[in-house]
Design goal:
CATH topology: Thiol Ester Dehydrase, Chain A
Number of domains: 1
Number of strands: 4
Strand content: over 45%
Strand order of the largest sheet: 1-4-3-2
Helix content: 10-25%
Number of helices: 1
Shape: elongated
CATH architecture: Roll
Length: 99
């Protein structure tokens, strides 16, 4: 939900909130698809484009791999509102590290 607690001073969803949601999705995507007993994925780069502002309602994030290598994953995360309008687009790189 887009609530006042995640607004920036002008009353719209803070870009940092979008980035946190995107990074959570991208990191989760990587860590779901690796052997968690041996490896973990850590974010090494994130780039977010804020395409439309949002004052209220609900946003949903979907992550998918662009590249799923052995030591590096690149993902794309889209955040959309309840009308399926694209709010932000993120690309993220995770490095896969041996524990």
């Amino acid at each position: 939900p887009v609530l006042p607690r995640i607004h920036q001073p002008f009353g719209i969803m803070h870009g940092g909130a979008s980035c946190v949601l995107a990074e959570t999705m991208g990191s989760s995507l990587s860590n779901i698809f690796i052997d968690g007993e041996k490896y973990f994925g850590v974010g090494t780069n994130i780039n977010t484009n804020h395409l439309k502002s949002k004052k209220d309602g609900t946003v949903t994030a979907v992550a998918r791999f662009i590249r799923k290598g052995k030591t590096m994953h690149v993902s794309e995360i889209e955040i959309r509102d309840e009308k399926d309008t694209l709010i932000s687009h993120t690309t993220m790189t995770n490095t896969i590290i041996r524990k």
